[in-house]
Amino acid sequence: MNNYFDHILGEQNPTLDLEAQEAIAHYIRNHIENRTESQSTETIKFGLQIEMIDYLNSSDNKNYIPTGEFLDRLLKRLKISKTRFAEYIDLERSNLQAILRGNRKFNNLLAKKIEQIFKIPAILWLQIETKNDLRKFEESKEIIKKYSLKKLMQKE
Fold first, then answer.
1. 76: alpha, beta or left, given left = phi > 0 and alpha = psi -120 to 50?
2. Residue of 82, 76, 132 whose CA lies nearest to 106
3. Which one, 2, 46, 67, 88, has the greatest CB density within 10 A?
4. Per-residue confidence at 117, pLDDT binned at 50, 70, 90?
5. Residues 34-51: pLDDT tens digits?
6. Start-to-end Cα distance in the chain
7. How far apart are CA 145 and CA 81, in angstroms?
8. Higher local confidence (pLDDT), 99 or 17
C-alpha cells in the first residue's frame, strides 16, 4: 500500500550512489558561489527572520534570547561592524553594546530604524522584546502573587 503512488510520484526514498551525491553537492556549491551579493544578503535576512519567528512561537521558557542577540547575529552575518552600525543609526557604541547584550531595551525608534535599513518588520523586533519582558515578570511571580480579581473584589 505504501508504494501505491510511487509510479506517479517516483520512488520516495531513492538511493543515491556516491557519484550522484557528489554531483548534487557540486551543483549546490556552484549555486551558492554564483549568487549575487544582494541574493546572499536577502537569504541571510530571511534566515534570521525565520529564527526570530521560531523563537516567538517557541513555548520553551528556558531558552531566553535577548532581542539584541538577533541584531548581533545579523550584523555578524552581514559583516557590518558594530561601530559603523552605531554611527549610522546615531547611537552611542556603548548603548548599542548594551542592547546587543540585552542590558538595554529595544525601543520603537530602534526597531523602525532597523526595519528601514534591513526590511525586517519593526513589529517582529518588538514582539520579541515583549515576549522577553513578559517572561521576566512570569519568572519573578511578583505580579502573579500580588494581583488577582478575587483580591480586587474583596470587600474591605
1. alpha
2. 132
3. 67
4. very high
5. 888 888 899 999 999 999
6. 71
7. 44
8. 99
CA angle 78, 84, 90 (to 5 degrees): 120
What mean pLDDT is predicted for residues 128-142?
Answer: 83
pLDDT at 30: 83
Cell of 102: 540585552
Rounded to whole angstroms, how far apart are CA atoms 68 and 23? 40
Cα 109 off chain centre by: 19
Amino acid at 12: Q
Instruction: Count Cβ atoms below 10 Å from residue 91 Cβ, excluding itself.
Output: 16
Q: How many CB atoms lie within 10 A of CB 59?
A: 5
| Cβ pair 24, 17 in contact under 8 A | no
Name the residue among 59, 46, 142, 65 with its Cα closest to residue 106. 65
